[in-house]
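Input/output pair, single chain:
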Amino acid sequence: MAITIQQIKELRSATAAGMGACKEALTATNGDMAEAVKYLREKGLAVAAKRVDKESKQGIIALAVAPDKKSMALAEVNCETDFVAKTEAFIKFVDEAAQTALAGKDIATTLEDDYKMLLTKTGENVKIRRSERYVLEGTGVLSGYIHMGGKIGVMVELATPCEKCAASPELAEAAHMICLQIAANAPKYINPEDVPQAEIDAELEIKLNALKEQKGKLPPEQALVGIKKGMAAKYCTQICLMKQDYVADGDLTVEKYLAGVSKNLGGAPITVKRFVRMQLGA
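Output:
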């Protein structure tokens, strides 16, 4: 019988085995899920199959950076205990996972044998949770940062039309500071215009319901226009990177900080093109 990608995903979710191993097991057992689990256990993945009921909330996020700094990748691998997360074998595997992601390869497939060995060695339900790879697009700079010993990982890309500026240590430092900002304040978007209107409406509904609960009733509709506008603006300052207070200088926003960097580099515009923030288990 033909094995579907959905069957493979279900078996992988149940056992934490690699995609290739799951396809092999399902093919060998004619798609029988229970027999496929048994097959994987017999092939050396017994630990994962036995411990699928255990939650994997610990682990590490690792960063890999290309020598030319024009590409980088984050990888998160989870385990059950902080003890295992600190072992040499686990740390090595997560580093290899990040390097594999940097090379643009699938972690589960490429490191399948190493993964099996790690399961046997640790005796825990280890999960390759996610990865992200950035390759510099156009003129600019990439920066990455690992916070709290692998609990938080960040990558950011700053863009500028000025090639000289892109190669400057000042822009590299600015990108690093933006990484620190993202790690500390966890923005969801770059600019207010990036926030979906549905998300703003949902937040306003919560705020207005709270206001009604507090006051007993809502202000007149004419007054609500200004109130809603203020609530929306405040919400955006919390979740939008450029509107957040700059962590290294509370008198500035991130937007004003980058404007200052731009001025020091001769006025070439600097924009945050994209960013990603991973938090362990979140």
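Residues 5-50 form a domain with the Helicase, Ruva Protein; domain 3 fold (CATH 1.10.8). The chain has a mean pLDDT of 91.
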